[in-house]
Structure formats: structure tokens, C-alpha cells
Amino acid sequence: MDDLERMNEVITCLEQKIPLREPHRINDVFSLLIATILSQNTNNRNSSRAFHNFMKSYEIKPDVLANLKPEEIRPLIKSAGLQNIKSKRIIAISKTVLYKFSGNLNTVLKLPLQKARHTLLSLDGVGPKTADILLNFIGGRAVMPIDTNIFRVINRLNFIKGRNYEKTRLTLEKLIPSEKLQEMHLLLIQFGRKICKPRNPTCPTCPLKSICDYPKTRDDVI
Ligand code: SF4
Question: Which atom of ligand 1 lies at the shortest distance from residue 156's CA?
Fold first, then answer.
């Protein structure tokens, strides 16, 4: 079985066996950018609490946030952790969006894909995963955001070795149909959290065990 056939098996299996839990949708690009900054180095529950707390006090708009002081943001986002760094990052990125992009990042999402990605990556605090989340979830672009769960699952299933973001992204974008990239991003994360866990993956009952050699080899690089 080649990699394309194996990935088709993974897609079919996860679509059937893993109930897709839709994330709380944020439809505005700047709000999603701020939510993603808050989510760095913490779990969903903590970052989502911080985002909602922040939203209750201030409109999540570049012209509003650019004029705040770190001490006005810090207590509101405490539950997300790293509040010193994140509060400064939020103000800096709000200023950049306001002055460099006239407060509107939607124009960036409409640029040719590589240019849009490059422009997003030029923003301080925006890494490849954040850029790809914005491009896919708001811009509807055919890119695959990769998180730590996806790295682990894809390594164990032997589609790739190592944690090179670009290599992993390009591999998955070749193997997964573009209209399924967002769904598979969510399903692979859920699968990684519930079944193919960092420690003690539940291999004996895993629905993918027939196409996974990891339990035999334990040749894990993560
Ligand atoms: S068999 Fe084990 S290692 Fe392989 S995908 Fe399933 S849980 Fe992960």
C-alpha cells in the first residue's frame, strides 16, 4: 500500500470513528489572531477563558488594543499564562495591523497564497501554525496547520520522520484532498489527544492499528 492509499484509509477511518468536535468558531481574522496568540504554550480551556475574559472588557479590534497598556491586558489574560509576553505581543501586533495594514488583515488573506503566508509570518509573534490557521480557517485556503499532536500521529504512522514543519505540511497537503484539510486537521488533533496519546497510546484498540507499525517497532522520534 503506498502513502496515498494509506492516507485514504486514515481519512476514512477517522471520519467514521472519531466524532468531529467543532471548535468554537471565530469568524474575524483579527480576533482569531489574538485568540491564537493567547493559545500559545497553553491548553484550549485556559486560552479560551482568557480570550472571553479579554473580550468582555475590550473590543477585539486593532485600534482599540493598540492603545492599551500591558498592565491593562495582563490581569485579563492571566489564565492563558505568559501574560507579560502575550500582553506586549498583543499590543505590538495590533499596532502593526493598524498602521501597516490599515487595521484590515482580510486583504492579506486574499493575496496569492505564498505572499499571504510570507506577509503573515512577517508579523512578530506569528509562526507557521498561526499563519496557516488564519489562512485555512478564515481565508479558506488549502493549507494544513500542523500542531504537536499531528506531528506525533503522522510520525508514528510513518508518513514522515521528524518535526520539520514545512516538510510535514507539504507532505500532508499532497496526501489529503484540499477540501478535507481543515476536517483532517481537527480529526488528527482529536485522535492524538484521545487515542494516539504522547504516553501510553491505546494501540491494542486503535482503529488504525492494521496500518501502523509503531507498536511493533516503537521507532518513535517524538
Ligand atoms: S496503533 Fe498506536 S501508534 Fe499507531 S496510530 Fe494507533 S495509537 Fe497511534
Answer: 3
